[in-house]
Amino acid sequence: MIIINFALAIALSLVITPAAIKLNILDKPNYRKIHDKPIPKGGGIGIFIPAVFLELSTFLFFNTFVMLDVFKLFTIMFVTFALMLAGIIDDKLELRPKAKLYIQIIVTILTLSSGIRFHTFDIKALDLLLTAAWIIGIVNAVNLIDGLDGLAAGVAVISCVGFSLIGFAYGDKTITVLSLIIIGGCLGFLKYNFRPAQIFMGDTGSVPLGYTLAIIGILCENAARGKASIIISIIMLGIPIFDTLLTFVRRAIKHKPLFQPDRSHFYNLMIDLKGIEHKKTVLIIYAIHAVLAALSCILAFSSDGWRAVSFFLIIATACLLSKRMGFIKTDSGYY
Q1: Most CB atoms within 10 A, among 115, 195, 217, 275?
Q2: Contact, 16 vs 45, CB < 8 A?
Q3: Is the model's pTM score more than 0.90?
Q4: 317 lies in which domain range?
């Protein structure tokens, strides 16, 4: 499954790159970007057309490998494909933030109506609200982390390696299959997306990627035992979540609109404030995320108490490091 999606992603990326240039679907440089020339985007097609194809093939020909019912599985495939199409339009026309949010709300409602949700609280309404916040939050977190060559795809691979191990250990074939499909697609895409990138995934890739990771996180919480099992998924997606929260905190302190693009992401700050080279920054983030993924795998087989303690220790460590590295300061001139 990894090999098939890997090969398809490589092949499609070769086709998509010249097509994106011809159609003028380009990410043009500005003060926020790290590239100094237009780069074709829309590379998410190379990840998610094969992904949806493999998900459908798995169900039709190897349905013993999935544990979700038909409606839930087809909802995931439909939403993934719909978000990819919406991403293509966004990459070409640059949709307004409100339009993007409306699309995310619609697909979230559709997902909830299929029965996919957390089971954290004893009150269903709270679980539905938590699930909605999770899906929209992770979709946007993964979209925001897609700011350096290879960063979002690499982080997704690391998370899905962890999710696949948990799925295998729990005997949950759906988690394992979905994770392996994403690993293959992202690895194939990384061949052309790692520094120096020849193509970006754009919203065509980052939005459906965020959705898929959110769904896998929900399935992981469902498969785990304990009221604190959501912590496993939070830590597994720790880097995108941390980046989003830190960015919002910096914007709030500076009294800037929360959704106004800038260079306040922590990966920007590693380059701008600490002078760390682009590729090295990505590799450092990979290493940190790998540690979080490994910890998440360990916590999948720990008690709720250990999960809660580990979660608060991670939060405290993140806050301390952010302060010591100057990431909380807003007088650095990067706004």
Answers
A1: 217
A2: yes
A3: yes
A4: 2-324
